[in-house]
Structure prediction request, 556 residues.
Amino acid sequence: MKPFYFLAFIPVVAFLIGVPLVNRIKPFVLGLPFSMFWIVLWVILSSLILFILYRLDQHDEEVS
Amino acid sequence: MNISLMIMIAVVIFCMYTAIKAGKGKNDKLEEWALGGRGMGAIITFFLLAGEFFTAFTLTGLVGLAYNSGIATLYIMSYISIACIIGYFLLPKIRHYSKEHNLISQGDFFEKKYNSPFLGKLITIVGAIAIIPTIVMALKGMGLIVSVASYGAISSSAAIWFGSIIVLIYTLISGLHGSSRVAIIKDILMFGVLLFLGLYFPFHYYDGVGSMVKEVAEVKPQVLIFPDTGLSLVWYVSTVILMCLGLYLWPNSFLSTFAAKNDKALRKNTILMPLYSLMQLFACLVGLTAILAIPTLSGAESDLALIKLVFETFDPWFVGFIGAAGVLASLVPCSVALITIGSMIASNIYMPLKPDTSVRKQMNIARLFAIAAAIISIYTSLNSHGAIVFLQLISYNFIMQLFPALIFSLQKKNFVTKQGAISGIVIGVSLALYSAATGTTAATLFPNLPSFILDINNGLNMLIINAIVTVVVSLVTQKSTEESQSLESGII
Prediction:
């Protein structure tokens, strides 16, 4: 397994362990209660992290 | 005939025309009809895979859930995000293997991996039973939306009849070529409708999303965080785990994966899918606005929250577009499901019995099974309410049972034997049936356990038992095959 694949675990932890830790209404961020903002944030970051993995994988494949 | 009904009919006719045109002259064998010739690029594969997320349920049940439980709706985008992370690694492996061995269906995949035709048939039957309820639910959702959006001009059962005949006609003629075109039209329409409503309502009734949410926080703060019991944090975590493992187990998502042109197409999909699932946030915002604007909905009525808000706010022609989005959102998953059922039964149940069938006849046999599945679905959605609840309960729990066998089969060294895989699935499916038939869950068996254990999604318990059985039976059978082999070599 490539070392950068460990990035993929971050969003999983943020959802399954993070959400129970931030289950509160305040502070409001971007108009959303904090609990909802947290989930929305990590949905976006999941896409971003997958994009990073994709670029690194592309790079590896071009090198080899 | 009113304007909103006319708009719905016009959109559906346009889609039928597009679909039939896209499939014209291309369908000469099963691989074309069921997999679009394995030439689907990133965009079309995306809409085929993502099409499953936004069905008529998004406009009805999901908004209803937001109305009653608010933040609970976000479990869907959470599990889609995790599923995409899993899919990034999983899907290319599945596609490679299918391409290498020229596989058509999910049953083929397991049959080849475990070298067991029986397992292939078992998977096919489990998959087919699991898909039928999704067709039934889509048809019922469509009936509801059309009857409401046509201002009662068309009854729910008439809508189910018309809708299923239309989807059957274009699916039979055009196969996945046409189905994928309609999927794109549908998602554009759904995206437009949801984005617009999700922002328009909070701004129309309040000064924006922020002040609407603050208002909800004062009136009904309990919907903005996960409560201590019921749809609690334990429910959230266990449901997200269960659902994210299940997303790629559906025979139709196997079909879409097989149809992809290359790994790049699949990987790009998994990058975009979480962002796309954010669209459900807008359904949630509509539901939250409805809490304040129409606070009196109760029970099943809350599923109509979106359409009732639209009635109060817009002209009938706009209602027509909502209705059209709802109709397409049902037709697309139905179409893909019918293609999946037809092709999997044709290639895994029928073909082994008559291996010398010509390629053209194979495709027509698949079409016949698609018709049969449609008839069963229409009958079930028009009759017996009890059966639908039962089917829905077993649907997801059935498909989940394929997870251990799939994951182990993708390992480089797979220690799970075919006996192990078969017994795991049989035990899991029996538990799901028993639980749905008798209403038995961990909660009814052990009512004294604390609520944080009782809120664990029931399907997850079945899955754990299945995994244990799979591993234990595999270890036992593996040992006995090794022993008999060494015994045989000893004799020689």
Remarks:
- Residues 3-391 of chain B form a domain with the Sodium/glucose cotransporter fold (CATH 1.20.1730.10).
- The interface with chain A takes residues 71, 74, 77-78, 80-82, 84-85, 88-89, 208-211, 213-214, 217, 221, 224-226, 233, 236-237, 240-241, 267-268, 270-275, 277-278, 281, 284 of chain B (CB under 8 Å).
- DSSP finds 23 helices and no strands in chain B.
